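Sample intake sheet
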Amino acid sequence: MILMEQRTLGRTGRDVSVVGQGTWQLGGDWGEVAEDDAFDVLDAAVESGVTFFDTADVYGDGRSEQLIGRYLKNRPDADVFVATKMGRRADQVPENYVLDNFRTWNDRSRANLGTDTLDLVQLHCPPSSVYSSDAVYDALDTLVAEQRIAAYAVSVETCAEALAAIARPGVASVQIILNPFRLKPLDEVLPAAAAAGVGIIARVPLASGLLSGKYTKDTVFGPEDHRTYNRHGEAFDQGETFSGIDYATGVAAAAEFAGLAPEGATPAQTALRWIIQQPGVTSVIPGARSVKQTRANAAAAALPPLPQRTLDAVRELYDRSIRGEVHGRW
């Protein structure tokens, strides 16, 4: 196995790899992935030094969790920390975020993952008022006391939601969209998390693949791919698809970003390296549907830090091409 840099995931006290493995793709919302191919992806991640898997109870209606559970049962030597999410199996109203539902959702995830105690459970982008509810955090504390979960965290859509959660003493980490096309979390969220000892998990790191530089304005995605059916937030928050950027705008900006990649690195690896070196980031969780993608993502951890001129060029590209379009939404 390759050794990779490890960082402490906030208040969990556990160390995880700086590049983790996102597993939304394994659930099926990016196109079908065969079970053997999914196991190969997870195996490639572990062999590449990844010690952190991120999943959710709704990825493929539990398929992603089930695949991880079966994989880890067959790989007892793999020291992997698994973060899952809950909350999106019910109507998105604050009244559904109560202890009885939490227990029901936990029972399903524990069965899927084949474990008595979940390493980390994140509220999965609930209504904004949930992040400020004392009763919600009391219920989460109860789950810890009952040893259903070892720690809890939140996944957010906005910086305001992140800041509300960071202020809570029991929140271990915050998962937020962060990539070279989504810079606003750098302003307040990352500094606040670092000061509070809260971990930061960066999701949608490649802007749904845009930052890989391999798509054009004529690229067609399958009908079951969220990059087809959620471009304007038809199914869930628009920010989860292309970071909320108009596709044509994103393709043009991605072509410019590709020109910033250092020799020997792909645009995707450059984007991951940019995230890894942002102060306060614990782990970045790119997804993958192939062994080649998985290994390439993990290899970004071994790249040297990007020079200041590249960091400045990323900021300039964002300010010129991206900021004005999406800044007001989040």
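Comment: The two ends are 40 Å apart (CA to CA). The chain has a mean pLDDT of 94.
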